[in-house]
């Protein structure tokens, strides 16, 4: 391993980290703006031009708030909760291909922090440990509301992880690889997976809503029953971290949706662009295309939030365990039959 | 010392220390969390052996699923020092004696066993690749693989049966 | 017309408890319908008024703080007849009448005047009935933007003549304006 590859990877990691943070920051503004627009209002427009500095103002406000600490059984865990939530939210971006490659300084630079063989499993693994941040924080708050909120959020997340994993299996049967880079490459042109696996996409979308604890599945927070849910006792920037992690998660899951089902960085006519405009320019457009897709999904999240009322808890569990899981298993069977249709036809003697 | 050796030493220290703390700490939640860290460091060992698949699966299954269910039950049961079950002295003595005997046996085995170091047969196949792994599992080890799945199915059916309420006759 | 068939909005819908069909149970159509409704609102005109730069139009029938008028010579109009107090639905007005002395002719227009005139602003509902009842054009509800100034004490909300009577210089200015016209 030469030093240039270390520099290259560090730069990519830094850039990805910065972009994730920036997107999460501006998602908070976008959320407020979209909410306002959908309700015939204008939204925040005082800080900066059109409210462009609002996230900074919010951050500054959170930083200057009093750091409150409850009578916690373990101070370390109380601090570790939000940190873990944030870490797991940011860890996912390591395996996402943001573009194909750049050709700079006489070498190909792959626009991905790391291209591991088991990237998709890594995503599921990171998602499954994302529950710890919530559970530890909720428990260390030493508050019944926090604990129940944490248990609710965690049980919801682990319930929907099952359906999410199963819906991905149908996709994997088709792609035959776990590497996100290869999955992106297979979708070149308009061969987007969503056209081949609409049911899988649909189940994954619902599960992504549930995983990020957003409306209509935002049962972890409930003023009347649970006060603020697992972050009732948190204040200042620790609270900010939890909220920020939620938005970072939203960005990441939008990215995963775009990469897995909507062709990632591919756009129609990309191969033509590579031939005529060169690799670099074509990939810059690819990155822009990916971010347009991501922003579309983030908008979808917000749009749904201001349309659909939330579920009741038993309805949530019913949907997860008794509708989505059988549906995704059915999807796996259908995919299998379609893939082996030639063999089946021969076997049946057509 | 090479980097890998340093990482191995650190990981081993973390694994052993957290495993010890799991047993030693009085708060059940703390022990569960130490166990989680222990699992993570074991996943790190797998990564050192260049088996990414095993490492990730270990994290998903143990840290991501089993330990979370553990934490769930512990948190909801609200175990604390006040209602800790006090074991009688004879049980504790028995535990110590049996532990000593087992460690005696284990140490004896370790001392007397001869390490069998064979040649590492390089077939050229990359066993870290999930493709190769899948082929091996579903070709050569098809029968044990399916038996494992049946075992899991039986466990699932058993738990469903246990949790089902018996119909009371009126 | 029986009460069941009346529909004020014209959009009355009778709630039925019929079994939903499979398609309805999936809620997908309903969700898409809802999403279309919300996205339509994205393009509608925003109703927000950006306050400091943009001020909402004052209604022509706006009723603000009360004022006891003076006439062209700066004399108080009020004759303490008590009709305003009588008409007040909130019973906010009290007054005490007194006879005008010979040397007070430049102060009060009629022979009788109100020596004490108080409106309890905690009771007042700004309905403007006092204004309508007044035979002498004495009390008016102005277009002042503040209705009542905030305070910690209840006594501060009982407005006496010191705060209700139109200041003399403004009355003089009004007269000059009138003469100029």
Describe this structure in words.
The complex is a heterotrimer of chains A (350), B (170) and C (181). By secondary structure, chain A is mainly alpha-helical. Chain A has one domain (65-348). Chain A has helices spanning 3-38, 54-63, 75-91, 119-140, 144-175, 180-186, 193-196, 198-211, 223-226, 236-261, 270-277, 279-305, 313-339, 341-348, and strands at residues 101-104, 107-110. In chain A, helix 8 (198-211) runs antiparallel to helix 10 (236-261) and helix 8 (198-211) runs antiparallel to helix 13. The mean pLDDT of chain A is 84. Chain B folds into two domains: 1-82, Four Helix Bundle (Hemerythrin (Met), subunit A) (Up-down Bundle), CATH 1.20.120.1200; 126-164, no CATH class. The longest helix of chain B is centred in the middle third of the chain and has 26 residues, at 52-77. The model of chain B has no long low-confidence stretch (mean pLDDT 83). Chain C has 181 residues and is of the alpha+beta class. Chain C has six helices and five strands. Chain C has helices at residues 22-26, 28-42, 83-87, 129-133, 161-164, 168-180; strands at 66-68, 93-99, 112-120, 139-141, 158-159. The longest helix of chain C has 15 residues, at 28-42.
Helix content of chain A: 55-70%
Question: What are the segments of chain C in which pLDDT stays under 50 over at least 5 consecutive residues?
Answer: none
Rg of chain C: 28 Å
Average pLDDT level of chain C: 85
Give the termini separation of chain A. 56 Å
SSE order of chain A: HHHEEHHHHHHHHHHH
Strand content of chain C: 5-15%
**Largest sheet report of chain A:** 2 strands, antiparallel
Number of β-strand runs of chain A: 2
- Assign the structural class of chain C, choosing from mainly alpha, mainly beta, alpha/beta, alpha+beta, or little secondary structure: alpha+beta
Tell the overall outline of chain A.
globular
| Strand residue percentage of chain A | under 5%
The radius of gyration of chain A is 22 Å
Organism (chain C): Flavobacterium hiemivividum
InterPro entries (chain C): 4Fe4S_Fe-S-bd (IPR017896), 4Fe4S_Fe_S_CS (IPR017900), NADH_quinone_OxRdtase_chainI (IPR010226)
Membrane topology (chain C): Peripheral membrane protein
Protein name (chain C): NADH-quinone oxidoreductase subunit I
């Amino acid at each position: 391993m030469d030093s240039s590859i270390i520099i290259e990877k560090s730069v990519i990691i830094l850039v990805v980290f910065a972009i994730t943070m920036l997107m999460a920051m501006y998602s908070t503004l976008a959320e407020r703006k979209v909410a306002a627009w959908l309700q015939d209002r204008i939204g925040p427009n005082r800080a900066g031009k059109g409210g462009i500095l609002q996230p900074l103002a919010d951050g500054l406000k959170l930083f200057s708030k009093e750091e409150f600490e409850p009578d916690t059984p373990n101070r370390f865990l109380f601090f570790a909760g939000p940190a873990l939530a944030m870490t797991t939210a940011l860890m996912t971006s390591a395996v996402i291909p943001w573009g194909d490659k750049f050709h700079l300084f006489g070498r190909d630079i792959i626009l991905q922090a790391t291209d591991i063989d088991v990237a998709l499993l890594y995503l599921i693994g990171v998602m499954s440990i994302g529950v710890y941040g919530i559970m530890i924080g909720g428990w260390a708050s030493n508050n019944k509301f926090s604990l129940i909120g944490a248990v609710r959020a965690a049980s919801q997340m682990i319930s929907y992880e099952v359906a999410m994993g199963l819906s991905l299996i149908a996709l994997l049967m088709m792609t035959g690889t776990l590497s996100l880079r290869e999955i992106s490459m297979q979708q070149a042109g308009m061969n987007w997976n969503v056209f081949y696996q609409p049911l899988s996409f649909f189940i994954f979308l619902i599960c992504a809503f549930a995983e990020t604890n957003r409306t209509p599945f935002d049962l972890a927070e409930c003023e009347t029953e649970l006060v603020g849910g697992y972050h009732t006792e948190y204040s200042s920037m620790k609270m900010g971290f939890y909220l920020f992690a939620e938005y970072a998660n939203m960005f990441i899951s939008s990215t995963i949706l775009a990469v897995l089902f909507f062709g990632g960085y591919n756009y129609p006519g990309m191969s033509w662009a590579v031939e005529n405009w060169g690799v670099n320019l074509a990939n810059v457009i690819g990155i822009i295309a990916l971010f347009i897709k991501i922003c579309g999904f983030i908008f979808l999240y917000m749009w749904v939030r201001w349309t659909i009322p939330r579920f009741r808890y038993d309805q949530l569990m019913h949907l997860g365990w008794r509708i989505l899981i059988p549906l995704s298993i059915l999807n796996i069977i259908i995919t299998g039959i379609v893939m082996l249709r030639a063999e089946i036809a021969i076997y049946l003697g057509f | 010392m090479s980097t890998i050796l340093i990482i191995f030493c650190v990981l081993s220290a973390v694994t052993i220390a957290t495993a010890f703390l799991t047993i030693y700490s009085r708060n059940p939640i703390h022990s569960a969390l130490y166990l989680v860290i222990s699992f993570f460091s074991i996943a790190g060992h797998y990564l050192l052996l260049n088996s990414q698949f095993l490492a990730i699966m270990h994290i998903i299954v143990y840290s991501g699923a089993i330990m979370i269910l553990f934490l769930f039950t512990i948190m909801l049961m609200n175990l604390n020092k006040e209602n800790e079950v006090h074991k009688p002295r004879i049980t504790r003595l028995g535990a110590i004696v049996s532990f000593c005997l087992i460690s005696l046996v284990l140490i004896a085995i370790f001392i007397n066993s001869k390490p069998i170091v064979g040649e590492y047969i390089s077939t050229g196949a990359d066993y870290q690749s999930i493709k190769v792994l899948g082929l091996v599992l579903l070709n050569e080890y098809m029968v044990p693989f399916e038996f494992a799945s049946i075992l899991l199915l039986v466990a699932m059916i058993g738990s469903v049966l246990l949790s089902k309420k018996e119909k009371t006759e009126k | 017309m029986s009460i069941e068939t009346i529909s004020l909005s014209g959009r009355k819908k009778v709630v039925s408890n019929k079994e939903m069909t499979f398609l309805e149970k999936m809620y997908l159509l309903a969700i898409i319908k809802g999403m279309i409704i919300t996205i339509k609102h994205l393009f509608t005109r925003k109703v927000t008024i950006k306050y400091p730069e943009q001020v909402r139009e004052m209604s022509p029938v706006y009723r603000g703080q009360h004022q006891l008028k003076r006439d062209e010579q700066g004399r108080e109009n009020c004759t303490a007849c008590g009709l305003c107090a009588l008409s007040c639905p909130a019973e906010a007005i009290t007054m005490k009448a007194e006879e005008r002395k010979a040397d007070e002719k430049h102060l009060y227009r009629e022979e009788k005047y109100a020596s004490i005139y108080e409106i309890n602003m905690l009771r007042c509902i700004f309905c403007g009935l006092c204004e309508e009842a007044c035979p002498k054009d004495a009390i008016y509800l102005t277009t002042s933007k503040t209705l009542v100034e905030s305070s910690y004490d209840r006594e501060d909300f009982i407005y006496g003549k010191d705060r209700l009577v139109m200041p003399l210089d403004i009355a003089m200015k009004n007269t000059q304006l009138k003469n100029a016209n």
